[in-house]
Amino acid sequence: MHGFCKVGGVGSARLVFDEIPKRGLRPTVVSFNTLISGCCKAGAVEEGFRLKGVMESERVCPDVFTFSALINGLCKEGRLDEGSLLFDEMCGKGLVPNGVTFTVLIDGQCKGGKVDLALKNFQMMLAQGVRPDLVTYNALINGLCKVGDLKEARRLVNEMSASGLRPDRITFTTLIDGCCKYGDMESALEIKRRMVEEGIELDDVAFTVLISGLL
Does the keyword Repeat apply (predicted)? Predict the structure, then answer.
């Protein structure tokens, strides 16, 4: 099932899943989660929710991975309010969000322009002792740059470094793009110098962003 879902073959995965009860076996939470995740990645979020309902009717308790997959599916479709409600439902059931849960929610909220809400969830993440990874930081930095909060974006980059995470090309290119869009070319060039100092080569995207800002 996992192999089929990984390559987008949700239909084939479903056929395998349907064979489980026919063989006198009971689908496990892992089986359900694999199919739900595959459905959500393929854009079939409603089918994912239907499967969650089947889980519950068969007394298989949805876990953090179930909710994370569904939240991710909702956020990808821009259904941020529903994603937040599902997050609250998960927490209400006593399930503790993990790094993936927080990251998919933060990323969706940043892409949807709800950066203030993303920052609140980021603070909740830290308060619960869940360590953000590079993907989390990059999502939040991207959201902040889009709304012009370059000061907070740069503060997060410094926070990343202090926590032992090394900013990557995406981090720096996002910052450069934000600085260029808001006319802060001095900071953009300073970030470029920092990239060079840290041994990160500028790719075509970074060069294009810089050139556009200088024109």
Answer: yes
| Element (DSSP H or E) covering residue 55 | helix 45-57
Q: Which tokens hold the place of 135?
A: 């993907």
Q: Token digits for 131?
A: 């360590």
Domain with CATH 1.25.40.10 in the chain: 132-215
CA–CA distance, 102 with 121 (Å, rounded to integer): 7
**Residue 77: enclosing H or E segment and its boundaries?**
none
Q: pTM for the complete prediction?
A: 0.83
SS3 for 114?
coil
Report d(CA 162, CA 143) in Å as an integer.
21
Instruction: For residue range 108-156, list pLDDT tens digits in order.
Output: 999 999 999 999 999 999 999 999 999 999 999 999 999 999 999 999 9
Q: How far is CA 212 from the centre of its chain?
A: 29
Q: What is the DSSP-derived secondary structure letter of residue 97?
A: P
**Count of alpha carbons within 13 angstroms of residue 131, beta-carbon side:** 7
Report the amino acid identity of residue 154: R
- Alpha carbon 43 to its chain centroid, in Å, reads 16
- Determine the CATH number of domain 132-215: 1.25.40.10
